[in-house]
Amino acid sequence: MSFYPTDRIALFIDGANLYSAAKALNFDIDYRKLLDEFRKRGILIRAYYYTALVEGDDYSPIRPLVDWLDYNGFHLITKTAREYTDSQGRKRWRGDMDIEIACDMMEMAEHADHLVLFSGDGDFRRLLESVQRKGARVTVVSTVKSQPSMTSDELRRQADTFVDLADLANVVGRPRSSHNPPKFLGAEEDYDETV
């Protein structure tokens, strides 16, 4: 990753997308290490984390993560996930955060030198082009080293820099626990961001 020490940096983390990419690479993200890494690379002015939450659940396995992030330097953007039943009769959730990410990136492009998007979603290609015209550099963090690839080729081409999440595993990751980790909103099996 190429950063200048005086770069004002903003992180934009698509929670469900990052979770799926890390899971495909068989590690978990250590969010404290992630913040520390970007604080070393410049002036971290904001770290946004986007996720949809299921309302009405007495306990959501993602709630401890969301609470921890909220108290430890992340700006949380959440919305209510919508339940639906897929064609096989399975209960699924929808909670697309693309608009929220796009709005915040457009606003921050005027205040930050370097925007880091943790998502491989090709829908963001045009967004990257727009914030680059405002003068911001954009790094995309996702992976092409999983099967299948978690990153759109168009998004990689538009980014100023692409960083494969697999290459950051030793810096911001920790091995997945050997017991079955709890499923939470963001797991591919339980969550569908398409609308």
UniProtKB/TrEMBL annotation:
InterPro entries reported in the protein's UniProt record: LabA, NYN
Gene3D superfamilies cross-referenced by the UniProt entry: 5'-nuclease
Protein name: Uncharacterized conserved protein, LabA/DUF88 family
Highest taxon, organism lineage: Bacteria
Listed GO MF terms: RNA nuclease activity
Segments for region (Disordered): 173-195
Residue ranges occupied by any NYN domain in the UniProt entry: 8-165
